Structures are given as structure tokens and as C-alpha cells.
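2024-03-11 09:14:02 DEBUG pipeline.ingest accepted 1 chain
2024-03-11 09:14:02 DEBUG pipeline.ingest length=257
2024-03-11 09:14:03 DEBUG pipeline.predict start
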Amino acid sequence: MFIIKKITVSLVLSLAFLAAPAKADFSVSPISMILTPDGKASSGVIYVQNTANEPVALDMKVFKRIVDENGKEETPSLSEEEAKNFSIYPPLLSLKPLEKRIIRVSWRGSKEVKFEESYRLFVAQLPVKNFEKQNGKHQVNILMRYGVSLYVSPETAKPVVKIVSAKLLNSSSLDPANPPMMELVFKNSGTAHKNLTYYNLTLESQRTKKKVYYDYKTAPKILGPINIFPGKTRKVIVPWIKDLPKDSITATVEILD
């Protein structure tokens, strides 16, 4: 049997670099934001600061966020109609050396969101010399960008996470380049994402009943951080635990945050 306990919502950090320079010329905080479909919490702010001694030009834009079961992320552009769901002010600005500014992000879409929706708010650095508008569109060449995790989530939304599969892969392999692996599949049947970062893990051989236990300090080092979106599964594949016989296993995860 697979068991999950004590689940709460956590936040996600993400940075995305496009032809990034050796050092960023600006900072962004916070790196995660949750907006509600209605009420005061439907609007929030991020802070951007120029950390250089030269002017910095920034462009702010929201993208969809799609993550498959292997953790691969895609961020396709919003359609023109979908883009109307967000208000970003200002969407484009230039910062003087060491200047700090507030960017307000607001949800303007439906107030009847039932399941949490996931987006990326990209804050992109532009070459100042190319910082201009033509025909109402930004003509830009992106140097670097930060990806802020942006969620639109009902106040009542919560995750419901469990492990639905645990198995051995490559059980008979003697090839060091293709060693035996362990596959765990998590499923979130709730209405909000869950970022697993603080949890205990117990693995048990079904044949010998031998158990291997990892506490919250060591378990994340084995599986790593795992962000599971509502209605989705997340597959984690790691090297087989040497202390376990190579046969069927059960896995128990106790979530502590």
C-alpha cells in the first residue's frame, strides 16, 4: 500500500536562461506568486532591481506552463484572448543603475476557476540600444530572463497526492551504463499543485520485507524536488537502492510540510 500524509501547498523556484551573460544585471523577487480568481489576492506584486551600474531594460510577459510526467517543461505563448486574462503594469520599463521598481500582476479572467492554473511570468532583459517600439510591438533581442512561477488558484484548492506505482527497471542489467533503476510514479488528484521538498521515504521489499528508510534530510537528495500539478502524474527514476534486493517493492512517503 502507498501512503501520503499531511499535505500542504508550497511554492516553486524557477530560473530560465536564454543566451545568459556570466552575471545577471537585475534581480527579481519573489520567484513564485499565487493569485486567486477573485478578491484582493487576484492582484500581486513582484520587485525588480537593477544590480548593475548601467541602465537595464526589462520586458514582462506571461506564458503557459506545461510539465509532462518526466518533469520536462514547455512554456508556449498565450493566445491573444488568453493574454487578456492578465494585466501587467508596467509591461516594459528601463531601470537606472541600482534602481528598484514594483511590477503589479493581476488576474482579469474568469472568477469561476475550479482547478489551479499554472503559468510562467518571464522577466526578460533587453539590450538598451534596441529598446524601442514599432507598430505597437516590442522589437527585442532577449539577453536573459527569469521565470517566476505564477499560479491562479481558488482559495479552497488543495493537493491530494499519492504514489500509484513503484517498480524496478533493468533488473538483470550488468552494464554500468544501464544500471538497475527505481521508478516511482506520483499522482495529484487534487485541485492545487504540490511541491515536494520536505518528506520522509520508506522502501520495502515485498519478498524479504527488508526496509530502507530515508528521513526528510536525505530523501530529497535521492528523489530531488518534485512538483506535481493538479490532475497530473509525475514520474521519478533514480538508481536502485543497493541495500534492497532486486524485486518488487512498496513505497511510503510521509509529507511533512
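2024-03-11 09:14:41 DEBUG pipeline.report Residues 1-22 have pLDDT under 50 and may be disordered.
2024-03-11 09:14:41 DEBUG pipeline.predict end
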